[in-house]
């Protein structure tokens, strides 16, 4: 997370960057897109289909400039390895749609969702995609299609070890959003105030990924030469079994990013 923007909130933030994350099951979508529409006050996210790629929308809301990013959902009860690679990339890249990074992750959970034992490890694995301290920047956003009292929500939390765990990780930050009542702007105002309170607790820090270092052309040429030398040595030792390392293996060993121009050149 970035420590560069440290301040104390004495009045509402003029800009808030929000990333919506969450899972789904056979009965419930997470309601991320609907929540995004409620927060922004307009139908800017398509709720008629599953979100396949991360999308960002901006809007002036209650005196604040909001950037809201919707992301693909994962299956609540399945490990990350079962989530399509493209979905994982879209989730991971969502932070780049609200530069320099989100102030808050809203973990969207339907009130009626039943939690199996696999939900906790699945959530932890998917949050690891961000390679950052996500929990200190997360608010649990319960989505409902009819009014829920605080007592009902607290009762549900008491019955769910998973909800108790996730709320403990998030500093007990939570909010209930009635996604069927878009006229209720008070619920949005309260959510934004909770986000601002969390930002103040975090001393103004936003959350950003650990960025990959991009190799320069010179560094890439040197690594390419080293790779060729290793290939020649391997061929000299075992000429009957030539070793042809793939670009993916060579490039991912040190978690570096290969320039597009080089990747295209090697494919041709």
Automatic annotation (TrEMBL):
PROSITE patterns linked: G_AIG1 (PS51720)
Signal peptide: none
A Pfam match: AIG1
Domain AIG1-type G: 17-219
UniProtKB keywords: GTP-binding, Nucleotide-binding
Molecular function GO terms recorded: GTP binding
Record-linked InterPro entries: G_AIG1, GIMA/IAN/Toc, P-loop_NTPase
Top-level taxonomic group: Eukaryota
Family under the similarity heading: Belongs to the TRAFAC class TrmE-Era-EngA-EngB-Septin-like GTPase superfamily. AIG1/Toc34/Toc159-like paraseptin GTPase family. IAN subfamily.
Record-given protein name: AIG1-type G domain-containing protein
Organism for this UniProt entry: Cyprinodon variegatus (Sheepshead minnow)
Taxonomic lineage: Eukaryota, Metazoa, Chordata, Craniata, Vertebrata
């Amino acid at each position: 997370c970035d420590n560069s923007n440290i301040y104390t909130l004495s009045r509402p933030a003029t800009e808030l960057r929000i990333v919506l994350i969450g899972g789904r099951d056979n009965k419930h979508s997470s309601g991320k897109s609907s929540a995004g529409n409620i927060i922004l006050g307009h139908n800017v996210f398509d709720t008629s289909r599953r979100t396949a790629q991360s999308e960002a929308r901006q809007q002036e809301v209650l005196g604040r400039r909001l950037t809201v990013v919707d992301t693909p959902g994962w299956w609540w009860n399945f490990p990350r390895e079962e989530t399509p690679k493209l979905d994982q990339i879209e989730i991971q890249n969502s932070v780049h749609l609200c530069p320099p990074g989100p102030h808050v992750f809203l973990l969207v959970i339907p009130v009626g969702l039943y939690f199996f034992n696999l939900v906790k490890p699945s959530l932890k694995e998917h949050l690891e995609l961000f390679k950052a301290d996500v929990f200190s920047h997360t608010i649990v956003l319960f989505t409902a299609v009819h009014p829920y009292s605080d007592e009902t929500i607290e009762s549900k939390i008491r019955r769910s070890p998973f909800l108790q765990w996730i709320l403990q990780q998030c500093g007990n930050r939570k909010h209930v959003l009635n996604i069927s009542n878009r006229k209720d702007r008070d619920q949005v105002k309260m959510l934004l105030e909770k986000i601002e309170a969390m930002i103040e607790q975090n001393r103004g820090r936003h959350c950003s990924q650990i960025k990959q270092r991009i190799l320069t052309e010179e560094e890439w040429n040197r690594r390419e030469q080293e790779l060729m030398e290793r290939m020649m040595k391997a061929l000299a030792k075992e000429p009957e079994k030539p070793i042809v390392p793939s670009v993916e293996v060579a490039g991912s060993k040190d978690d570096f990013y290969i320039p597009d121009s080089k990747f295209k050149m090697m494919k041709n």
